[in-house]
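Follow-up to my earlier ticket, as requested here are the two runs.
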Amino acid sequence: MADYKETTTSGTKWQRARQIIIDNPRNESPSIMFVEEEVLNLGNEEIRRDVGNLKETLAPENVLTEIPLRNPLTNELNGQTATYWDLQVLLHSAYFYLGGSRDEKEAIASSIDSNPAAE
């Protein structure tokens, strides 16, 4: 006997990183963890479920590991590579850039708040 309202359906299924966690402890090697999920697309509905984690420590012994770079829109290899060190440099620089931008905006807002006549 078939289940109540049983139907046959088709769709596509893939796996992706739904979250990327960077751990940057003081005086220890940083690590990166990808929280993976499986996505099932049934046309008008997506079903997602966590399937595990993929973690790598960015340690001195693997700092020169080369990562083949992919276009994030097409997933095609672009012929370039970056190392784990390049990733650390990029993230470190992004933090300083974003922090500096935030601080600059806060300084401008504080200056306007403390000097209403300047408006």
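Run two:
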Amino acid sequence: MEITPDGYFLELWSKNRNGEIVYPYLKTKRGELGKGFDVSPTGKKPDYRLMSPEEFLDLLAKGAFKTQGHIRMQPRNANAAGKSGGFLIPKATMSDRLSEHLRTRVSAGI
């Protein structure tokens, strides 16, 4: 699964209050090395942590987010301030390509 050059993962999306499509994006956090998706397995603010794309896909394939979990998403435009936040992973839309990728991972036992 690919990340765009500007750091967005376009295979998973949701809509914000303004009806704009939002995507998970790579970000950095103070005190942490590298970039990752900002994910909370519980949906609670203190539980957000950076997760590599590979780790996120592994947990998604294993069903870790079937009922809860949030991932920070934002629109892909320059005026995204205030239009982003944590979105419920089970309610996000997956592309057919991502769904197939996850099925393949599960059947391969990855």
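The only thing I checked on run two: The mean pLDDT is 89. Let me know what else you need.
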